[in-house]
Design a protein that fits this description.
Layout (H helix, E strand, L loop, with lengths): L22 H11 L7 H12 L5 H19 L7 H18 L17 H15 L19 H14 L5 H10 L6 H10 L2 H11 L12 H11 L19 H4 L4 E7 L5 E7 L7 E5 L5 E6 L8 H4 L7 H8 L7 H10 L9 H17 L6 H11 L4 H16 L5 H13 L5 H12 L4 H16 L9 H14 L8 H10 L6 H5 L3
Helix pairs in contact: 1-2, 1-3, 2-5, 3-4, 4-5, 6-8, 7-10, 8-9, 9-10, 13-15, 15-17, 16-17, 16-18, 18-20, 19-21, 20-21
Length: about 525
């Protein structure tokens, strides 16, 4: 019997990000930018320059010159070799070099036009640059303190206290990113600190987020920040206190990412069939949807509902690129489901289309989500995992299988719900059944006795959602299920909906023998 793994604390010393304590440390850190790229480097660069710019001397500028030269090289790189966020960081460094040296204003590259679609990071860069120009050393609220992008809740309290003491309002997007990154698994010390150091709306806002039982308690001056706190704390809870916020008029699925999906079937010449997996975007006054004949959304454009957008609203315009995806996922490690909805909307359609770029995006997403150690709740999270388990790309299937194994060990997934999602997708034969049967035999079965039992739970739920008319390769699925029942010491099938289906399927002579072995 396997012992269940305990979730590790999100905030621990081994995950602490490097401390850029002084100008020498800053110069050294900037040098590392030219050699390697960690997901948190841009955040740390902005925060360090805001804090240390007043102390930089002319000799320090000379030591930074290799970094500025490197930034110029990045601006000339082809798109295939660098991410847009790397180009944004390089552009920021060149603007900063111009500020330091008083050189002639540089001509902006045509590449920079695309930055508008990268609003969260573009706004952070603008905020940092203005702080530097003004010699304003107030800390950015959103800078992570621990890998991969978590913020120690006590540090967030201290940062917010600095704003309160100077009577300066935080930037809305910076504040929202901070709440989306703050670690909420252990907030006892942060609650005590907030009650001591904060007052008024700041105090009420953080206590609402940190205390599981707390309700919102106004005033609600920072409406976007309050709404983001609510989405982070409990994305499926609708708080009556926010009913007059403009964001409450939006269909909530667009704020949580839990948009339903379905498989659409199209008959083609010569007996061929296309099966397309796609979102079914619900109606909302700020969403433009172009429907394709057959019922699925060919195009969907989201328009923020207020002059001050929610952080999650800015995600709907961000292009999905392999070199940038991890950093965008880590803007909201507490609430990543919208990014999964974007992957399904823009890239996941045909299970037979070997899209190598999609495979690379999926591997980045799965590795990042695995690092976050989150509970996989909500329809979109389960749909995305199911899609990856059925992927045409074998490395993606194996990565998803390893993630499933860890989620089971840590009790972070509902296998009945995952089985239902897999069954709904497979009922319309979106992907070949041998992908899931082969994955079970190769990667999922016999990890441990506990995994086997959870896999049996998943398979009962999965098979119960298949249609009465046998899907292709149903026999192989039932053989794998029988093998699974054997390693679990032959517990008989007792779930009534599956028993009814087995009785119906048994009428097919090819299935009779394997089905009788399950009674």
């Amino acid at each position: 019997m396997m012992d269940r793994m305990e979730k590790e604390p999100l905030i621990q010393e081994g995950r602490r990000l490097p401390d850029v304590a002084d100008v020498d440390g800053l110069v050294s850190f900037m040098g590392r930018l030219t050699e390697e790229q960690e997901s948190f480097y841009l955040d740390l660069l902005l925060a360090s320059l805001v804090r240390l710019h007043p102390f930089i001397k002319s000799d320090d500028v000379k030591r930074m010159m290799p970094v500025f030269e490197w930034a110029g090289t990045v601006m000339e790189m082809p798109e295939s070799e660098t991410g847009e966020l790397d180009v944004l960081a390089a552009s920021f460094l060149l603007d900063y070099a111009q500020m330091l040296t008083g050189s002639e204003r540089r001509v902006k590259s045509s590449k920079q036009q695309s930055f508008q679609d990268y609003k969260p990071y573009l706004d952070l860069v603008k905020l940092a640059f203005n702080r530097i120009k003004d010699y304003n050393t107030l800390p950015l609220l959103s800078t992570p303190t621990h890998r991969p992008a978590w913020i120690d809740p006590s540090v967030l309290v201290s940062r917010l206290s600095a704003y309160q003491k100077k009577r300066i309002k935080p930037d809305s997007l910076d504040f929202q990113i901070a709440l989306s990154r703050v670690a909420l698994d252990d907030t006892e010390e942060a609650i005590r600190l907030a009650e001591q150091e904060l007052a008024g709306e700041y105090r009420e806002l953080l206590l609402f987020l940190f205390k599981p039982e707390a309700r919102p308690n106004g005033p609600f001056t920072f409406q976007a920040v309050w709404m983001t706190a609510a989405l982070v704390k409990s994305p499926d809870t609708v708080y009556d206190e926010f009913k007059d916020f403009p964001y409450s008029a939006v269909n909530r699925a667009y704020l949580t990412g839990d948009i339903p999906c379905d498989v659409f079937t199209f008959e083609k010449p010569f007996g061929k069939v296309d099966r397309i997996l796609q979102l079914i975007p619900p109606a909302s006054k700020n969403v433009a949807i172009k429907w394709r004949f057959g019922g699925y959304a060919l195009y969907m454009a989201y328009r923020p509902c207020s002059r001050i957008p929610l952080l999650v609203e800015t995600f709907w315009k961000v292009p999905l690129r392999e070199k940038d995806l991890k950093r965008f996922l880590l803007l909201s490690p507490n609430a990543p489901r919208i990014w999964l909805a974007l992957l399904v909307r823009d890239r996941v359609r045909d299970a037979y289309w070997n899209d190598l770029e999609l495979a690379r995006l999926n591997l980045v997403a799965l590795d990042t989500l695995r690092e976050l150690d989150l509970e996989w709740r909500g329809g979109m999270a389960l749909t995305y995992l199911a899609v990856c388990l059925l992927s045409i790309d074998r490395p993606v299937r194996l990565c998803a299988a390893n993630l499933w194994g860890e989620l089971v060990e840590k009790d972070l997934i509902d296998n009945v719900a995952l089985g239902r999602v897999l069954g709904k997708i497979q009922a319309l034969e979106w992907a070949p059944a041998q992908r899931i049967s082969g994955l079970v035999v190769e990667m999922l079965i016999n990890r441990s006795s506990f995994h086997n039992k959870e896999l049996s739970v998943l398979f009962v739920s999965f098979l119960s959602c298949l249609p009465e008319n046998p899907v292709k390769d149903l026999k192989r699925l039932l053989e794998v299920f029988a093998e699974l029942q054997t390693v679990n010491n032959w517990p008989k099938v007792t779930y009534a909906p599956l028993l009814c289906l087995l009785e119906t399927w048994k009428k097919n002579s090819k299935l009779t023998e394997v089905i009788e072995s399950l009674y």
